[in-house]
Amino acid sequence: MNSLHLKSYTRCKRKAWLDFKGKKSHEVWSPHKAIDKINQFKIFSEFCNGEIYTGLKACENGYQGVIGLKIKGNLFQNINAEILPQLLVKTKGKSKWGQYKYLPAVYKLGHKTTKEHLFDLAFCSILLESFQESKIEKGLVISTFDKKIKVEEIYLNKKLIKKVLNVLLNLNECLEGSIPEITEDRKKCTICSWQKFCDKEAKENGYLTDIDGIGSKTASLLKSKGIINTQALASYNEKQLGEKLSKFNDQKYEKACIFVKQAQAYISGETYFISNKNNTEDLLEKICSGFYIFDIESNPDEKHDFLYGFLKVNNLSIKKEDLIYEPILNLKNKKEEFYRQIIAILFSHKEWPVLHYGETEKIAIINIAKNLNFSFEEIDSLASRFIDLHTLIRKSWILPIKNYGLKTVSNWLGFEWVQKNVSGSKALYWWIQYQITENEIFLKKIIQYNKDDCLATLKIVEYLIKDQLKKN
């Protein structure tokens, strides 16, 4: 076992087992891992003033930062282990190499230092101590905040070392055993490279957390009431279920109805229309004279929107190939110029509604308007043009799908992206690659992806208004 297995194990036992024994053909490449590695190297390099070298020779030469070193050793009870330290940082002390030694360091995304970081440092210290023949009292957690490097010192006391040794024993037992159950907290699965493999099994076995709106806590509540899978939920009496969902207070009967209908849809493949104040009639009325579809690509860690994409739809009968798509790239982070381009597009058709999927786009435009010192009245007028199709479809339909994300809904409707296996995180990976290489091919990939996101949103618009079009 190695430190990567430990990292996986602290998140999900099944992931650790699959990383160790799973068929690699079932694993899907994750852009999150790649982005993490790039950010990690960038921060480590800055922290070590660019003095980062690879492998054992780097330790022997006493370089400030060392990466890419594998250290093997025996832990206890004949358990063989391997560490792959994210970074070793040179400090004062004495080791087999001379009057210096190395401390283990890990990269942290966000503000919270987790068990994952602590265990990684403690595990590394156990094998690193004997390898460099020097005591390790602490490890470092390196992160960035407001573009400044932050370093947290973690003291590796006996209590932490004992704790990680117990976890490593459990990990070893897990890796030697049969495949663990799928985790109840499926939210963790969204960035996992084994997600598709587990999703297939979860659907076959009727996991409750596959039903939209049911998390691990609600699933546990349902199981305690004897509802153990989606089949049991789908056949349950809605009123009786409502009585069991007291935690939802006044919404308990509404939630019960939605959960049962969602389970029935998921199993049968049927859809259920929810009558809701003629929302779709209002939508058709608003968009009949033309509308925009708007989608953003961003780097949330740097709070940087790098592409705003607008699809102009003059009327619903226009052919897809005749639609005008306008991408606005924020290459040099010149905010004023970027903002004015966006506002110019939106105000070229002041009466047009702006259709988007999720709340991000509306919030971004309101923030731009505030930055450009719009009055409260102007901001209200602009905000009133935005229509969130994610909210609208959830109010109008129960669909036979696992979640109501743009990809899931539009794929179910038969839409296909030109580029395969794409996602917002892959677009972010391409953006980072463009920043490093300045190769225009990455920009072309991002623009194609964003255009397809807009067309996928249009597919959902057409689905929402199809019944009203038939009536007309």
TrEMBL record:
**InterPro entries given in the database record:** PDDEXK-like_dom_sf, RecB_nuclease_TM0106_put, RNaseH-like_sf, YprB_RNase_H-like_dom
Q: Which domain of life is it from?
A: Bacteria
Annotated signal peptide? none
Domain YprB ribonuclease H-like residue range list:
293-464
Gene3D superfamilies to which the protein is assigned, alphabetical: 3.90.320.10, 5' to 3' exonuclease, C-terminal subdomain
- Output this protein's name: Predicted nuclease (RecB family)
